[in-house]
Specification:
Immunoglobulin-like; six-stranded mixed sheet; binds copper (II) ion; mainly beta; binds CU-O-CU linkage; 32 strands
């Protein structure tokens, strides 16, 4: 019905010359959907604990953690008017979207942060299908830790769900990590904790799945479900496992991979994975999403409770997702070569680095809140790290000479992982955020096809704040 009437509108517009169809929708008419950032509360800790005051996004009513799911088809526009009802300036970044630069939300590089009481209109095309998220990109160490993150799903162009070998249902799982006190309040006096920043970052004590502690999720025996898993934590790397569910990976950071079995899945902050699971058919009624909190002891963070009729098996093979078909592939026959050297942090440190136009020793850097450096500079936002001409293939060697892993994120582009020492089965994956272990080197390549000023930073937000942030320019 809707598509029919839309088609007749299109026909009518074509008859009138069609030009009006292409004009930008008016932003002044007040009809833009709202995305409000405001204080709210959420029951993060298990039942029996008080609810937690958070900062959260809402499209209507009170804000939720995670923020409301925004869902559209690849190639469609996202249009939202951010209303800032927070006590601080803010901006929204649409993580992983190959977006128009002015809409990237990377304050203060691509827009000024939006002051309390003011608004900003986001209006852009999401070109590629996949699992994405949006989050605050101003004072993000604090604002994301307080809850400002939500789900952004760009649906496949071609039907996948329900097709032979595909899943019949999908479920978004947002994983988060919270540092709560014994009254379930967010610990607020440690935003500048340099000790945490020089180690693995701000580590929480409560892991939630879709904003709840230890939720129980329903599944039918034999049911094939597509999980869209998002690590929205500020700093925690999530090692995950889904035993007894025949877990197969089908996409990383939104980009399809050939379906492959996955025993352990490691998601750095901001990374996503789409996983297909099959409900157990062995008569057992429970299965678990397990997390290794870092000591090798797997704990259940969500349960899958089996009930209902056993569904017929959908077969051993999983149908691959439709290809993007929109990403230019790097030409490696003469790329522009760039390097990114990561230094600093506890147990290794750095002798000196440039900060704010001056070369400083370790102590002076720390006095300025800087404990990390990219290519010998801490949070140098005055000059781009490099410039690339539009259409040029950039090859980057990312070397981590610190004792901690880092999750390096490039804005505005997806890149191919060409090599990754020490980790099997990662080459050829296309991502927007790559995890690089201590003393590891990763080579990536991408076509710099998106004009503008793009951030490159560690997505451990404590590291980003304390030195691991820079930008590159595509002109
Ligand atoms: Cu997910 Cu610069 O961000
Ligand atoms: Cu880092």
């Amino acid at each position: 019905m809707i598509s029919l009437s839309r088609r007749s509108i299109l026909k009518a517009a074509a008859a009138l010359g069609g030009a009006t169809l292409l004009s930008r929708p008016s932003l002044a008419d007040g009809s833009l959907p709202i995305l409000r950032a405001a204080p709210s509360s959420a029951q993060l800790a298990p039942a029996g604990y008080p609810s937690t005051p958070v900062w959260a996004y809402a499209t209507e009513g009170a804000g939720t953690v995670p923020g409301p799911e925004i869902r559209l088809r690849a190639g469609e526009r996202i249009r939202h008017r951010l209303i800032n009802d927070l006590p601080q300036p803010t901006a929204v970044h649409w993580h992983g979207i190959r977006i128009e630069n002015a809409m990237d939300g990377a304050a203060p590089l691509t827009q000024a942060p939006v002051p309390p009481g003011e608004t900003f209109d986001y209006d852009f095309v999401a070109p590629d299908p996949g699992t994405y998220w949006y989050h605050s990109h101003n004072r993000s160490t604090e604002q994301v830790a307080r809850g400002l993150a939500g789900v952004l799903i760009v649906e496949d162009r071609e039907l996948w769900l329900g097709e032979p070998g595909a899943a019949t249902r999908e479920l978004v799982l947002v994983l988060d990590d919270w540092l709560l006190d014994s009254d379930a309040r967010i610990v607020e006096d440690r935003w500048d904790d340099l000790h945490a920043a020089s180690h693995g970052g701000r580590m929480g004590n409560t892991v939630t799945v879709n904003g709840a502690a230890y939720p129980e999720l329903d599944i039918q025996p034999g049911e094939r479900v597509r999980l869209r898993i998002i690590n929205a934590a500020t700093d925690r790397i999530m090692s995950l496992s889904l035993p007894h569910l025949s877990a197969r990976l089908i996409a990383l950071d939104g980009y399809p991979v050939m379906p492959r079995g996955t025993d352990t899945l490691v998601l750095g902050p901001a990374q996503r994975a789409d996983i297909v699971i099959d409900g157990r058919m062995d008569g057992e009624t429970r299965a678990s999403l397990l997390l290794d909190p870092g000591n090798g002891e797997w704990v259940e963070i969500a349960g899958f409770i089996h009930s209902g009729d056993t569904l017929p098996s959908r077969g051993a093979d999983v149908r691959p997702l439709p290809a993007w078909g929109t990403l230019p592939m790097p030409d490696l026959s003469g790329p522009q070569r760039e390097t990114l050297l990561m230094e600093g942090g506890a147990m290794r440190g750095m002798r000196e680095a440039r900060f704010d136009g001056k070369t400083m020793g370790f102590r002076e850097l720390a006095a300025n809140g800087m404990v990390w450096a990219f290519n010998g500079a801490a949070n140098d936002m005055n000059e781009p790290m490099f410039r690339a001409a539009i259409g040029r293939t950039v090859h980057m060697e990312l070397t981590n000479s610190s004792m901690f892993p880092h999750a390096i994120h490039l804005h505005g582009h997806h890149f191919t992982v060409l090599s990754k020492s020490g980790t099997a089965n990662m080459e050829g994956d296309v991502r927007d955020t790559v995890l690089i272990g201590a003393d590891e080197t990763v080579e990536i390549a991408f076509v710099a096809d998106n004009p503008g000023a793009w951030m490159i930073h560690c997505h451990m937000l404590s590291h980003q704040k304390s030195g691991m942030m820079a930008w590159f320019e595509v002109t």
